[in-house]
Amino acid sequence: MNNEHRPHSDSQEIILTGISGSPGICIGKAYLVDREGVDVIEKYYLSDHEIPNQIKRFKSAVHKAKTELAAIIEEIPKDLREHAYILETHMLLHKDKMLYGKTIENIEKDGVNAEWALKKATSSARKMFKDITDPYLKARASDIENVSDRIMRQLTGQNGVNISGIDKRVILVADNLSPAETSQIQLNRVMGFITNRGGRTSHTSIIARTLEIPAVLGLEKATTMVHNDDLIIVDGNEGIVVLNPEEETLIRYEELDRRYEAHKKDIIRTGELPARSEDGRLFRVMGNIELPEEVVGVKDHGGDGIGLFRTEFLYLSRNYFPSEQELYDQYKEVVELMAPRPVTIRTLDINGDKEISTIRTPDEANPALGLRAIRFCLKKPGIFKTQLRAILRSAVHGSVRLLLPMISSCEEISESIRLLDEAAESLEKEGFAYNRDIEVGIMMEVPSAAILADSMADMVDFFSIGTNDLVQYTLAIDRGNRHVAHLYNPLHPAVIRLIKHIVDSGKKKGKPTYMCGEMAADPLHLPILLGLGIDELSMAPQSIPEIKNKIRKINVSDSEQFMVTVLKQKTAADTHRLILEAFGDILYKDVYAG
To answer: For this structure, is 203 an active site residue?
Structure first.
């Protein structure tokens, strides 16, 4: 073992707990990313004749920030090219109405300096994203902040972080890292990183997983507790950071690191193999994506198709709705790249008043239960039919499945299918090539839909369970609320019974049930999901090889028998204990097997 890993004799071992941003283990010296603070912004008022110059100053700062970012995009390593779209999205955000337009408006209306106007616009945009329930979209608030920070540095003349200039082997410690900063990481220099802020669905976390370096986020006080050259252990598997580790801890983690790396190589080698259980049952393991560029990641990780293509990003960060042709081009690209494997396209799932500036509706006290997803689409049938037409046209180029989000009643299904038929009829009249013979499914994420699953099974071709919202709505828990987030648990007996009812209702009518929520990506849940009869799982591409590997080790008949006991449990803790007792060796032991 390398002597430089030895802790100082007078240091005390401290364990910090955060969020796993990217799996893996690394041991090394801390390197604090020294970011000059731009949080303290002075506000001062302008005379009328000073306002035009202040706007000009702001526009100049935006131009310089875009030029700086363009240079970074040019230098993105080949390994990260598939994620260049993240920074290209940031390029668009520099001129976004929420940020650019609102800042200029603040300068003009309030008569204030550009720094204060930008700070106010950023704060306003952040509040808009706060009300979104989808964790992926919610995390996009950090994109707004990253772009704002870059512009603010240009206004204040402060320097950014030069990640690419680091010249020694280190673990980065920062308050936060932007995607642009993360993309500059050189793997021969940076072993991993930890941050005070951020979450698993942030773009920074996505890039870390692509680079395959350990990352722990959301530590809150990492930059105050860790100093330059402190020895730290980053356990991205468990979301743990060990500061000043004792020798026994070091030895244990070095062995865990060796075993984990061996295990990772093994599952990646077998990623293309089918997910056939020990007793011969075949399952499809699919990928969740947001943009066409992510298809490469699904294929590289052995995905059997796209189980969830979120389409919201084609609508965000603009003050107009995308055209049918624009949507068609995007969908067609994904469908062709995945053919003949299926692509499940989810229709627009967003609350339009919060995110699309062309629609202005009154503020809602509780947007999570308001005008969003299918409710928004049915209220705006023109917008909905434009998307449906694009989806039907793309279905000519491969295997397409249509997924309707946040269904809560049979009437919503009937109305959606009526509009789908109208879209097909209009394409026929106009002479466009299209395919109406596609499967139509519904997201099972609202308890009312789960309860009515037996009736809804007569109206659709498949169910897709979105556990993120189903758990939240069933347990009445906002997992973004730190006071109650600990109560959010997919293994709650009520959640398991609802899933069972959905699956059983589908099977009686010959309709399959899939799962595309986060529950599908956790190996701990596999015995439950396979035992309940879930036919297909969909998840972030990086999780696919691990889940396929675990499915091959599970006997589904054993899982089905196991469910007899699980369904008698009264608490999530009891169910968790039972899973570890019955399947712990299969699910976890081989992760660290030498």
So the answer is: yes
